[in-house]
Specification:
globular, alpha/beta
């Protein structure tokens, strides 16, 4: 505990799933947390949960596709807590079940705008504040950037580009003591995956590709993110961290 004491973290997509788990664990580890997301009511629920556990958190509702919101979220973090040390770019959307010839321009643009350009916007706004004292940026990607998964063209493209962007950020800001790493989860038991998790006929064939034959939990991802955010990872930057129950290496 207390690995993040004295630090301020901004987490996008904090209303549920991985983002919620990261926010709660960050707060338990001593960080002051600023949560963003599109669903104000869910953000406020997470904030209340954190406060009931004696943590510190505020919510700033909005979308990473909105430059005004992005700058307001960063500004609110700095005004409320005096600094910004950690950025977790977790907000993401996906299109599932369509191959590229079945994907329209609108879907392609929406997925790229949230998953890639949203990270660009938020990082661009946060970095000037981190340059004063250093910081850690953690981007939440996917195993879809590492292996071929059927019928995910826009999602896979956005996450592959996010991995490359992570390395670029890491190189550009190492001299400013800003680290940037990317976490690549496999199948995680989140609300987004709920329809799949509830359908054994669909779920079991997918899990057969995992060495550890179950879905991961948001909390398991959060523990890895805490490490990357902490000073324990001071010599870690530009790295890719699959957390996938062995899916990307399993040949069974």
């Amino acid at each position: 505990m207390n690995r993040l004491t004295g630090k301020v973290a901004l987490i996008t997509g904090g209303t549920a799933g991985i983002g919620e788990a990261i926010a709660k664990l960050f707060a338990a580890e001593g960080a002051a947390v600023v949560l963003t997301g599109r669903r104000k009511g869910e953000l406020e629920r997470v904030v209340r949960d954190i406060e009931r556990s004696n943590g510190r958190a505020i919510a700033v509702a909005g979308s990473v596709t909105d430059e005004t919101h992005v700058r307001a979220a960063v500004r609110q973090a700095v005004q409320t807590y005096g600094q910004l040390d950690i950025l977790v770019n977790n907000a993401g959307v996906g299109e599932f079940g369509k191959r590229i010839h079945e994907t329209d321009d609108t879907t392609w643009a929406q997925v790229l705008d949230v998953n890639l350009t949203g990270v660009f916007r938020m990082t661009r706004a946060a970095v000037p504040h981190m340059m004063q004292r250093g910081g850690s940026i953690i981007n939440i990607s996917s195993i879809a950037s590492l292996v071929g998964i059927p019928a995910l063209p826009a999602y896979a493209a956005s996450k592959g580009a996010l991995d490359a962007l992570t390395r670029s950020i890491a190189v550009d800001y190492a001299k400013d003591n800003i680290r940037c790493n990317v976490v690549n989860p496999g199948l995680i038991d989140t609300p987004m995956a709920a329809p799949l998790m509830a359908n054994p006929d669909m779920l079991q064939p997918i899990l057969s590709h995992y060495a550890i034959r179950r879905a991961g939990t948001p909390e398991e991802v959060a523990h890895l993110v805490v490490y990357l955010a902490s000073d324990e990872a001071a010599w870690v930057t530009g790295s890719t961290f699959p957390i996938d129950g062995g899916m990307t290496i399993y040949k069974g």
